[in-house]
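pls design
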């Protein structure tokens, strides 16, 4: 999957500026008392509230799924009011949850919710519909009661999902994934996709997985069972076309690669195809969704190595279709539909009509383009079902670039609905391994809202509802703080082609000339960058003070703000150290200026200590946040970057300390070039 960082043109920068200004400065929507995500199809607000004093009862039938939904509702009431509702069998209570087979307008996942001052009823045809009605009711509960309202609701898309890269860095703990799934289910997400290159410990291919970095069959089955209880299906994506560089570097598998340096299996190699079919056959047993995703993006190597003759004889398109068809047979025999990334077929549109008719194209596009119609037309015109797959734009960045992600999710999901898409997957990617899921809640939950609501989903409605629905906090301090963190991308794009990428956090003014040159580019907006991140931290802490749930997830927002703040600080330190050393050089030969020279040198030493301390604090916090959601696997690779950064600060401090002592003993100072303080 090409998670490519592209430079943004003037048009994109203008859109980013307008988006940020809108998010930070928009007034509250008049009359929007109900803060709900997703936004229901129909809401009629009334007057008054259903009180939740002592003696609240929740009436529900004997079905285990419905009683589980009732237990979540009881927990919500207890958390909001301190009261402990009773769950009773039957159809009489303060709140009634009931199946209503005649409610055909609700479809398979819709519901009807009616709240009166005397009681509330949630009705649905199915367990899923009742579950989703309860999630809406939970968001309506406040300590002073439930607002009177009538809601009729059903989803726009059958499948509403999140795509989680677990293969190139962070591997979540089972507990963290369960929490994600339970939280996403509150927002009516019903599909969770795990992207694996070698993050599954296959029984049939034990060399695939790295120790400590893979899910066992028992873990995947337990996760699927947990997800099922929350009406979420687990979708396994196992790359079998490419992105298998680590696997194909092993002696046991290197002969299966298209070329000696390729991460792609060779379609001309029977053993390569057998491996792919074996992996997918086992993956099908773990995927509780009706699909298995086979990958298949970025097929750039096929035909360059051992499949050259086959491709020359039949054409790369025919080779691709034959292989996909074989994989489709393997999965169909196990009751699964084949999902595949659509970019190769989009570049060869004549192949669409030759694809297996039950296959599903995952059409990804992470841009903020105005229209996505052409991206879907190739498949829909050939009668192929599609998933639309926008992106959280979190990859290789300190924080998701919301100025790209929100319009992308909004536009692609809206277009998918128009074209009859089967579902939506909001994609998170972990390129370079320095990625934390806790940073992604805002775009991921926006995707949930966009996939459920029919038509366009208003980002302003989402902003005003985010704090309440995710944190149970009044106001919109957290949403505003998130916008301020994300504004770093717009601030930095004003002076450089790229946005706030991870690479910026490793620029060190104590290192070489390239780092100093790049930091000099950031110097102009450094103060603005620091101010906005300080405001973000303050806003996040205000939200934390009133949050009743998920307050710990604000730690990720604050960490991103501190990391971005440090980038601005490093740009400032670079200029100060350069100026101080220049002043020291200019005055070192004046006998009456030795005190001034030492003051300047000591000031630089102090700045170096400041930079090192800041880096150490970020390292410790990063490690804590990583372990709060991930296994220790791979963490050492990121900590090594922090350690190298710390070493740079320390080595420069040591060198300058030697120069300072030497100066005190009569030696001249090294040149600015020699000390690394030159422009």
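designed seq:
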């Amino acid at each position: 999957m090409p998670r490519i960082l592209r430079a943004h043109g003037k048009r994109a920068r203008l859109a980013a500026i307008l988006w940020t200004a809108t998010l930070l400065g928009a007034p509250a929507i008049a009359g929007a008392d109900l803060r709900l995500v997703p936004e229901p199809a129909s809401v009629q607000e009334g007057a008054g509230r259903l009180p939740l004093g002592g003696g609240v009862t929740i009436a529900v039938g004997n079905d285990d799924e419905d009683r589980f939904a009732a237990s979540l509702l009881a927990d919500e009431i207890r958390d909001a009011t301190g009261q402990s509702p009773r769950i009773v069998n039957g159809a009489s209570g303060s709140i009634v949850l009931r199946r209503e087979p005649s409610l055909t307008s609700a479809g398979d996942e819709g519901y009807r919710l009616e709240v009166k001052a005397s009681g509330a009823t949630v009705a649905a045809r199915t367990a899923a519909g009742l579950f989703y009605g309860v999630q809406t009711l939970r968001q309506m509960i406040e300590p002073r009661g439930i607002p009177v309202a009538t809601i009729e609701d059903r989803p726009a898309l059958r499948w509403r999902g999140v795509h989680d890269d677990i293969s190139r860095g962070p591997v979540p703990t089972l507990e963290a994934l369960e929490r994600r799934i339970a939280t996403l289910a509150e927002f009516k997400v019903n599909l969770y996709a795990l992207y694996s290159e070698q993050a599954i410990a296959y029984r049939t291919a034990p060399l695939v997985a790295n120790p400590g970095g893979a899910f066992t069959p028992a873990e995947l089955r337990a996760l699927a069972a947990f997800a099922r209880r929350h009406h979420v299906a687990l979708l396994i994506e196992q790359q079998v076309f490419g992105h298998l560089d680590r696997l194909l570097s092993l002696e046991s598998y290197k002969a299966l690669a298209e070329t000696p340096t390729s991460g792609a299996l060779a379609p001309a190699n029977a053993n390569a195809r057998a491996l792919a079919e074996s992996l997918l056959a086992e993956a099908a047993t773990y995927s509780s969704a009706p699909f298995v995703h086979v990958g298949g993006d970025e097929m750039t190597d096929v035909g360059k190595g051992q499949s050259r003759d086959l491709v020359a004889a039949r054409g790369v398109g025919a080779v691709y279709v034959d292989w996909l068809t074989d994989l489709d047979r393997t999965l169909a025999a196990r009751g699964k539909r084949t999902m595949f990334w659509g970019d190769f077929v989009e570049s060869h549109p004549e192949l669409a009509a030759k694809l297996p008719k039950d296959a599903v194209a995952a059409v990804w596009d992470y841009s903020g383009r105005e229209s996505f119609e052409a991206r879907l037309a190739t498949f829909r015109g050939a009668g192929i079902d599609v998933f639309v797959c926008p992106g959280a734009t979190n990859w290789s960045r300190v924080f998701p670039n919301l100025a790209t992600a929100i319009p992308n999710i909004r536009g692609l999901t809206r277009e998918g609905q128009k074209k009859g898409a089967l579902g939506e997957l909001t994609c998170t990617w972990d390129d370079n391994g320095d990625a934390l899921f806790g940073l992604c809640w805002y775009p991921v939950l926006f995707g949930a809202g966009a996939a459920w609501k029919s038509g366009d989903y208003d980002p302003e409605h989402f902003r005003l509802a985010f704090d309440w629905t995710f944190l149970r906090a009044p106001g919109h301090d957290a949403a505003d703080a998130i916008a301020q963190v994300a504004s770093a991308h717009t601030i930095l794009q004003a002076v450089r082609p790229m946005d706030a990428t991870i690479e910026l956090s490793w620029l060190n003014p104590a290192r070489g000339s390239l780092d100093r040159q790049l930091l000099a580019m950031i110097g102009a907006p450094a103060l603005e960058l620091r101010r906005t991140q300080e405001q973000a931290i303050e806003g996040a802490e205000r939200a934390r003070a009133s949050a009743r749930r998920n307050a710990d997830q604000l730690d990720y927002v604050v960490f991103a703000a501190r990391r971005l703040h440090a980038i601005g600080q490093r740009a400032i330190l670079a200029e100060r150290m350069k100026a101080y050393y220049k002043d020291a050089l200019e005055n070192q030969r004046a006998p009456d200026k030795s005190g001034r020279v030492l003051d300047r040198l000591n000031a630089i030493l102090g700045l170096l200590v400041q930079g090192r301390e800041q880096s150490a604090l970020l390292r410790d916090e990063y490690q804590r946040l990583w372990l709060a959601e991930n296994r220790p696997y791979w963490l050492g690779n990121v900590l090594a970057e922090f350690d190298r950064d710390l070493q740079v600060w320390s080595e420069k401090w040591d060198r300058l300390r030697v120069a300072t002592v030497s100066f005190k003993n009569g030696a001249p100072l090294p040149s600015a070039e020699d000390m690394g303080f030159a422009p």
